[in-house]
Write a structure and sequence with these properties.
binds zinc ion; binds glutamic acid; 299 residues; single chain; alpha/beta
């Protein structure tokens, strides 16, 4: 892809400080964009106030800057974009791709996949609680730059919520609306989001059939010594800006970017030269060297 056409992004949720898993996603998407002189945006996914931690959004931005990961253009805040999500929902409803759902947790108990109760409309005494995307029976696939061939079948996933019963916009809808509007065409992110990709592919096609395709790369998960995914729940520790050179070097090693015998990145890290190390990383970036299997990280 030519330099001018590439638009990548990092889209953190401000539910806590950046840990090594989120740093990996930020660093890999930054390197992949900068390697071709592409644009790299930051979008703050602050759609879910109950899960947010006060101060986390500004802390994340300060941390990115401290790690030398500078973004292009203004940071987009999803909390400011409700009107666009409402437009998207209306468009889907008008095109019979979204419908109101009256189901409660109780009526859905025992169903691993949404059984489609409300797809044909509600009874007069029922009221709309959430909205779901109607994706009919579709199968698809994509070639992930890290995970390889991926396939999906909508009947195994079921119609999913795009506006929640608590009135909040669902992550799936917001991400797709924003990626379309921001012209994002390459997504490099963690494999914890692999299950979301079919939903986002289908929503994207429904919202804008003429939109170009996205190239996807899902990075290896980071797990702790017990094999659990690094997250706030497993008490992953925040990355410290003071340790940026060493942490960036460790992240680049995990991403398969530093072959044995390469002394330059180590020397740059030893000298505390974050900008130099990032420059080296973007110049020498090979997405094809990123491993697909989970990686262990203590911290
Ligand atoms: N906000 C999402 C998260 O932090 C990531 C969204 C994305 O990269 O698509 O898990
Ligand atoms: Zn329903």
């Amino acid at each position: 892809m030519n330099a001018a056409g590439y638009v990548g992004r990092f889209a953190p949720s401000p539910t806590g400080r950046l840990h090594m898993g989120s740093l990996l996603a930020a660093l890999a998407s930054w390197c992949d964009a900068r390697h071709v002189g592409g644009v790299w945006r930051v979008r703050m996914e602050d759609l879910d106030p109950p899960r947010e931690v006060p101060g986390a959004a500004s802390d994340i931005l300060r941390t990115l800057e401290g790690f030398g990961l500078h973004w292009d253009g203004p940071v987009v805040y999803q909390s400011q974009r409700h009107a666009s999500y409402a437009d998207a929902l209306n468009f889907l409803k008008q095109n019979n791709r979204a419908y109101g759902c009256a189901c409660t947790r109780k009526t859905l108990q025992g169903h691993a996949v949404y059984p489609g109760h409300c797809r044909k409309g509600l009874e007069s005494e029922q009221s709309v609680r959430s909205h779901r995307f109607d994706w009919g029976q579709q199968k698809g696939d994509w070639t992930d730059a890290v995970q390889g061939e991926c396939t999906w079948d909508s009947t195994e996933i079921g119609d999913f919520v795009i506006k929640r019963a608590d009135g909040l916009w669902a992550y799936q809808l917001a991400v797709v609306v924003d990626d379309l509007e921001q012209g994002v065409n390459v997504v490099v992110r963690g494999s914890d989001l692999l299950d979301s990709t079919p939903k986002q592919l289908a929503l994207r096609a429904a919202l804008d059939p003429l939109a170009g395709s996205i190239r996807w790369a899902h990075l290896p998960l980071l797990v702790n010594a017990e094999g659990q995914k690094l997250s706030k729940q497993t008490l992953a520790s925040a990355v410290e800006v003071a340790k940026a050179p060493g942490l960036l070097l460790a992240a680049l090693k995990m991403l398969g970017q530093i072959s044995p015998g390469k002394s330059e990145p180590q020397a740059l890290a030893d000298a505390g030269d974050v900008e130099g190390l990032l420059h080296w990383a973007s110049q020498n970036w090979h997405l094809s060297q990123v491993p697909s299997a989970p990686l262990q990280w203590q911290g």
